[in-house]
Amino acid sequence: MSRAPAAASPYARLVLDTMPQACRIGLALGFVRTFGVPEVATVLHGTGRLSAVPGERAKATGVAMFALIGHGPGSAAGRRVVEELRRLHDRPDITPELMHYVLACFTLCPLRLIDGYGPRPVSGAERAAAFAFHRELADALGLPPVPQPDLPALGSWMRDFEERRFAPSAAAHALWRSTGPVLAARLPAAPTPLAGVLAAALLDDPLRAALGVRHPPAPVRALAAGALRRGLRTT
């Protein structure tokens, strides 16, 4: 994993040094969240890679995001990742709006996980730096300017987008069957019988509906949340 230099942004220090495990889980959740949009799920499922080698695909996504956050989209390493991302997503069925949504998932989901389960909430400086990174990456990818003025506005746009676009799909259900165990494996100190339930418990109701995941009973959700919280606060 790349280490954040001393002069790195508060967001890079949070992701790479302060809470890397929580951020890895949050990025994985962000990736899973994109499956709720049928167009995205169809594209990802159509490549076949997530079904064949889900761990490898998830790891590659995490490595790319950590490299971008650690070095910046404008660095030599960052430009290489950006060019690869542009090549992979240069297709007519991936619109700028969909790309903006995917970037929003990768930006917001780690912060939400930390706020809910980490040893402390994300600071104001870290939130501002995360939003600055989001805008810089969108610009590097050649997307239209981010219309939202700050992180809360981005979160509101993301919720509105999901209300309009989330829907169940066979592709999303298949992707979850492949990647759910990968997400479960990243959770800290989860007992093996509980790992899958814990992963499902981290999904909210709209995403569960889109992925075709059963709603865990309240006691199971509470047990799973407690296990994750204890794990992240002791690492």
Automatic annotation (TrEMBL):
<dbReference type="Pfam" id="PF09995">
    <property type="entry name" value="MPAB_Lcp_cat"/>
</dbReference>
<dbReference type="InterPro" id="IPR018713">
    <property type="entry name" value="MPAB/Lcp_cat_dom"/>
</dbReference>
<protein>
    <recommendedName>
        <fullName>ER-bound oxygenase mpaB/mpaB'/Rubber oxygenase catalytic domain-containing protein</fullName>
    </recommendedName>
</protein>
<feature type="domain" description="ER-bound oxygenase mpaB/mpaB'/Rubber oxygenase catalytic">
    <location>
        <begin position="36"/>
        <end position="230"/>
    </location>
</feature>
<dbReference type="InterPro" id="IPR046366">
    <property type="entry name" value="MPAB"/>
</dbReference>
